[in-house]
Amino acid sequence: MELTKPTMVELLDHLKAGDILDNGCPVCGHKWAGEWTDLNGEQRCWQCGVAIQVKNHKIPEQWCQAQGISTDEIKTPYCSDFHLLPLRRLYWQATHHRIPDGDYFGDRPDPREVWLNYWRWIAARHVELRPIYPDEILWDKLLANPELNGEIELGEILDI
Questions:
Q1: pLDDT tens-digit profile of 91-108?
Q2: Structure pTM?
Q3: Which residues of 4-31 are buried (b: 16+ CB within 10 A; e: fewer)?
Q4: Quick one: pLDDT at residue 159?
Q5: For the chain, which ranges sit under pLDDT 70?
Q6: Cα–Cα distances in Å, from 112 out to 27, 45, 108, 139, 152?
Q7: How far apart are CA 146 and CA 108, in angstroms?
Q8: Whole-Å CA distances, 12 to 66, 80, 87, 110
Q9: How far, in Å, CA of 72 to CA of 16, rounded?
Q10: Residue 94, φ and ψ in degrees, nearest 5
Q11: Residue 49, C-beta contacts closer than 8 angstroms, at least 6 positions apart
């Protein structure tokens, strides 16, 4: 499995560019057509489900200052989870199953099976993925329940 997480320099370049959708969805490659999530300015790809902030950036000023950039340098569209794009692209290429992504205040639009498919796929590849994403996914929690029984919330497994 050839997968690398973007560097901080790549993330900052991404946030300043505003060109992530110029060649279609960065995960599935289809021409961008999105559905709105509950987060102002965020859409999910109709095809693969990855979320992109298409307007009204949400990057905190304090984080920008810590990185040596101003909030004025942030351009939309951008991917809030840019560091996870390689993982999501690999999942899409391997399965062509929707990605359970996006911010919602209540019920999420994806059926439970979409969540199960996604987390089972990741859990099955933990040996390869954990060294690449040691802090982004709560691996011990994920692997403690390989069947992923019960309700699954993104924040319970991702460190967000």
A1: 999 999 999 999 988 888
A2: 0.86
A3: ebbeeeebbebbeeeebbeeebbbbeee
A4: 47
A5: 1, 146-160
A6: 21, 18, 9, 20, 8
A7: 22
A8: 12, 11, 19, 30
A9: 9
A10: -80, -35
A11: 98, 99, 100, 101, 102, 110, 114
Buried b (16+ CB within 10 A) or exposed e, 40-52: eebbbbebbbbbb
Query: Which residue, 113, 89, 159, is CA-closest to 142?
Result: 159
pLDDT tens sequence across 140-160: 988 887 565 444 454 555 543
Q: List residues bridging with 34 in a β-sheet.
A: 45
Going 18 to 22 to 27 to 31, the CA torsion angle's sign is positive
| Spatial separation of the C-alpha atoms in residues 27 and 21, rounded to whole Å | 10
Q: How far apart are CA 91 and CA 85, in angstroms?
A: 10
The answer for residues whose C-beta is within 8 angstroms of residue 31's C-beta and 6 or more apart is 24, 25
| Spatial distance between the Cα atoms of 157 and 137, rounded to a whole number of angstroms | 6
Give the phi and the psi of residue 114 in degrees, each rounded to 5.
-65, -45
By the 8 A CB rule, do 18 and 77 touch?
yes
| Domain ranges across the chain | 7-81
What is the spatial distance between Cα 32 and Cα 94, in angstroms, rounded to a whole number? 20
